[in-house]
Amino acid sequence: MLTAAIEIGFVLIGVALALTLYRLLRGPDTTDRILALDTLGIDAIALLVLFGIHDASTAYFEVALLLALLGFVGTVALCKFLLRGDLIE
Fold first, then answer.
1. What is the third-level CATH fold of 2-84?
2. Chain centroid to CA 41: how far?
3. pTM of the model
4. Inter-residue contact 55 to 3 (CB < 8 Å)
5. How far apart are CA 24 and CA 29, in angstroms?
């Protein structure tokens, strides 16, 4: 039962990745593209956690945590650059 749920999760996260990638490439505005990039990172984190559950390995969870931290910092930096035009004051 758990393996079927994991396989369904892989398919659904793959669909979410494809739709988010479409929004990233076709976004009408820069803010939409930044939001799509952040969502793409969240989808990748979900995929890593699902791989960790599937393989019963804790290494995937550590990588997912690192990716979450980098994604947050990257999103904040992009938004700050978009608002002010520079990153360092």
1. Helix Hairpins (1.10.287)
2. 1
3. 0.85
4. no
5. 10
Separation between Cα atoms, residue 85 and residue 26, nearest integer Å? 23
Could you state, in order of their start, the residue ranges of all structural domains in the chain? 2-84
State the Cα–Cα distance between residues 60 and 81, nearest whole angstrom. 31
**Residues whose CB falls within 8 Å of the CB of residue 21, separated by 6 or more in sequence, listed in order:** 36, 40
- Entry field: residues in the chain: 89
- At 5-64, the pLDDT tens digits run 999 999 999 999 999 999 999 989 888 999 999 999 999 999 999 999 999 999 999 999
Question: CA–CA separation, 25 vs 41, rounded Å?
Answer: 15
Radius of gyration of the chain (CA): 15
Q: How far apart are the first and last CA of the chain?
A: 54
Q: Residue 56: what are its φ and ψ, rounded to 5°? A: 55, 45
One-letter amino acid of 34: I
